[in-house]
Here is the input.
Amino acid sequence: MTDLAVLRALYAEEIRAVANVRSAALVRAFATVPRERFLGPGPWQIVAPVLPGVFPYRTSEDADPRHLYHNVLVAIDTTRRLNNGQPSFLAQCLDALDPQPGEHLVHVGCGVGYYTAIAAELVGPTGRVTAIEIDPDLAAQARENLRNVPQVAVVEGDGTRHDPGPSDAILVNAGATHPAPVWLDSLRSGGRLLVPLTVALDTLGHGRGAMLRIVRHADAFAARFISEVGIFPCIGARDPELNTQLAAAFRRHTGELVQSLRRDRHEPVETCWLHGEGFCLSTLPGAAKTDPP
Here is the structure.
């Protein structure tokens, strides 16, 4: 059996380099949390990309946890192509959210809880993490996996409807066409929300798009896209009409112009990048609430 402490440290440094992680605390968390605790006994099914868009599984040669300490996707359920997320991608997300000790972080779509445990390391024993998972089996696994992490509460339910209370950081780990109102409502001033806005590519809702980072400043919301993403769908946060509008918006290749999220009532205007019911991604600056005359 390989020395896992050494492997985890090397893995964390690999993630730091690949994801350009700024937070030393996040690197320490990746070096601390045992991934094998969350993925069950091996051998494991590991995603092995061979061509663009072609991602078959390969079986690890044995049950040595060393196979998990690379920047790879590992299957949770191969029949649904449901995987434990790419470490470098989730590291980028957590780095962008910048959770601090004592804060309340919400993880929507926590899966089996591995990245929830990493988030718990960041908020520390004085903080707390609300982990929400709609799939009953995954929620049960996450609850069992996180039973020894007292600052984490696992909720089985719809993360687009569950009110987690005042929150400092929210990570949505599934693709949406729009930010759910409860996410925006629960953010404290200074709170950060990271949500993948994706266009469905198949009947299951798997999609591609971009990660949207939203920061609340009192009643105004700054917003910008920070990276591309391909991800599993977020049940409850997908609207067919907005899916069509979002696809058209991404085709214009103007996502870098988005600066804010508006919640005031207004008619669609030139500054509206994506205009929906109760929200609008706008090219206006983050503190603006109305269009200029």
About this structure: The longest strand covers residues 187-200. Confidence is low (pLDDT under 50) at residues 288-293.
